[in-house]
Amino acid sequence: MNQDRPRRREYSKQFKAEVLTRCAQPGASVGGVALAQGLHSNMVHRWIREQRERQALAPPAFVPLRMP
């Protein structure tokens, strides 16, 4: 492996969750949130897409209903 190339940055799950929470706020723009965190907006868009994919694969929540 080439030692001259910079390594990819790795971000914690907590950091990603905070960024995604900020993006979900009313009036927030993904680009603005990304810029404020020193990130490229494409990366944040990828995190949003990955979050949606995980949610789509998650089993639906079971809510028991009591019958009278």
Helix and strand topology:
Blueprint: H1 13-23, H2 30-37, H3 41-57
How would you explain this protein's 3D organization?
The chain is mostly helical and about 70 residues long. The chain has a domain at about 15-55. About 55% of the residues lie in helices and about 0% in strands. It has three helices and no strands. α2 (about 30-35) crosses α3 (about 40-55). It is elongated, with a radius of gyration of 18 Å. The model has no long low-confidence stretch (mean pLDDT about 90).
- Helix and strand pattern: HHH
**Uncertain segments of ≥5 residues (pLDDT<50)?**
none
In whole angstroms, how far apart are the ends?
A: 67 Å
Can you count the helices? 3
- Derived from helix and strand composition plus strand pairing, the structural class reads mainly alpha
Helix content: 40-55%
Strand content: under 5%
Mean pLDDT over the residues: 89
Biggest beta sheet summary: none
| Gyration radius from CA atoms, angstroms | 18 Å
Care to count the β-strands?
Answer: 0
Shape type: elongated
Features:
68 residues, mainly alpha, 3 helices
Q: How would you sum up this structure in a few lines?
A:
The protein has 68 residues and is mainly alpha-helical. The chain contains three helices and no strands.
